[in-house]
Amino acid sequence: MATAGKVIRCRAAVAWAPSKPLSVEEVEVAPPKAGEVRIKIVATGICQTDDHGLKGSFPNMDFPVILGHEGAGIVESIGEGVTSVKPGDKVIPLAIPRCGECSFCRNPDSNYCQKFHFTESQSLLPDKTSRFSCKGKQIHHFMWISTFAEYTVAPEYAVAKIDAAAPLDKICMLGCGFSTGYGAAINTAKVKPGSTCAIFGLGGVGLSVVMGCKAAGASRIIAVDINNDKFAKAKELGATDCINPRDFRKPVQEVLTEMTGQGVDYSFEAIGQADTMIAALASCNMNTGVCVMIGELDSGSEISIDPMLLVTGRTWKGTIFGGWKSRECIPKLVSSYLEKKFNPDLLITHTLPFAKVNEGFELLRAGKSVRTVLLF
Question: What pTM was computed for the model?
Answer without folding.
Answer: 0.95
